[in-house]
Amino acid sequence: MNKPTDVMSTVTDATPIKVPTLPDAQTVLSVKHWTDRLFSFRVTRPQTLRFRSGEFVMIGLMGDPDPKTGKQKPLLRAYSIASPSWDEELEFYSIKVPDGPLTSRLQHIQPGEQIILRPKPVGTLVHDALLPGKRIWFFATGTGFAPFASLLREPQTYEDYDEVIITHTCREAGELDYGREVIESLKTDELLNEVIGDGFWKKIKYYPTTTREQSPKMGRITDLMKSGECFSDLDVPVLRPETDRAMICGNLAFNLELKDMLESYGLEEGANSKPAHYVVEKAFLD
Ligand code: A2P
């Protein structure tokens, strides 16, 4: 029961249909906090927004008023869309940086509130940037899992490849939960099992690792590849340009190290304009 004066309850209980008051406003539909550092949220999708699974858009909030002019400017950052291209809503997965200009505020959003979304999707982590292959590797650290949450729910991933390997390295075990839940949900997703084929998810090999907290598999993915442990665990050969394709999304040091390793295996970087063997993108950090 809400007291008439209970403003918070009134806001939280509001139905998520509001008249947009911000430019490019979208309404928050749900928010889930995974750890004290990570959260995901879903927002309405503009009817005109078309994107390819794996792409990102600029999203944000209005900044504080300028002390002199009182004018407010949008505070925007690049966020990978974590939902697939066919989904009616948009999902995002974000870190919470205590002093981050955007995420320190964004982490407090509630259903019914609005965010700004610039409807101009771009990005390199798209199937169009890769040549045909047998096996695709998705390499993620931290919130770099987001574009793969989209691509793992994209039918083309399973139409194009016989095997889909997703590696996710995080500091702590709880940081793997979002990714694990996305992958688990594929098994019971009636629509995807019908569209792609029953048991399509059996093509996935999931390889979660942690570096600063105990979990069944410890270590940076790069080290586990160098030692060969990753390949023997997964029962697959080392990547080869003839068979393997890869997408990388994580922090900058990880991206650079893995890029060098893939090059040493003979893989070449691709782009929308010139498809090749692998593509790379930096995960959002605020
Ligand atoms: P580590 O704990 O050894 O630094 P972050 O939260 O800093 O973005 O890191 C996410 C994960 O990525 C952590 O598990 C971190 O391991 C790992 N990582 C950071 N740099 C690299 C790198 N150059 N190669 C592989 N993994 C890395």
Strand adjacency order, main sheet: 4-3-6-1-2-5
- Could you name the ranges where pLDDT drops below 50 across 5 or more consecutive residues? 1-14
Query: Can you summarize the main beta sheet?
Result: 6 strands, antiparallel
**Cofactors, ions and other ligands in the entry:** adenosine-2'-5'-diphosphate
Structural classification = alpha/beta
Percent in helix: 10-25%
Number of helical elements: 9
Shape: globular
Order of helices and strands: HEEEEEHEEHHEHHEHHEHE
**How many strands appear in the DSSP assignment?**
11
First and last CA, distance: 39 Å
**Gyration radius over CA:** 20 Å
What report would you give on this structure?
The protein is an alpha/beta fold and 286 residues long. The protein is built from nine helices and eleven strands. The protein has helices at 7-13, 103-106, 146-151, 155-160, 177-187, 190-196, 221-226, 229-234, 252-264; strands at 25-33, 38-44, 56-62, 74-80, 89-95, 114-122, 135-141, 163-170, 204-210, 244-250, 278-282. The protein has a six-stranded antiparallel beta sheet. It has a five-stranded parallel beta sheet with strand order 9-8-7-10-11, with helices on both faces. The longest helix has 13 residues, at 252-264. It is globular, with a radius of gyration of 20 Å. Adenosine-2'-5'-diphosphate binds at residues 141-142, 169-171, 211-212, 220, 222, 251, 253-254, 257.
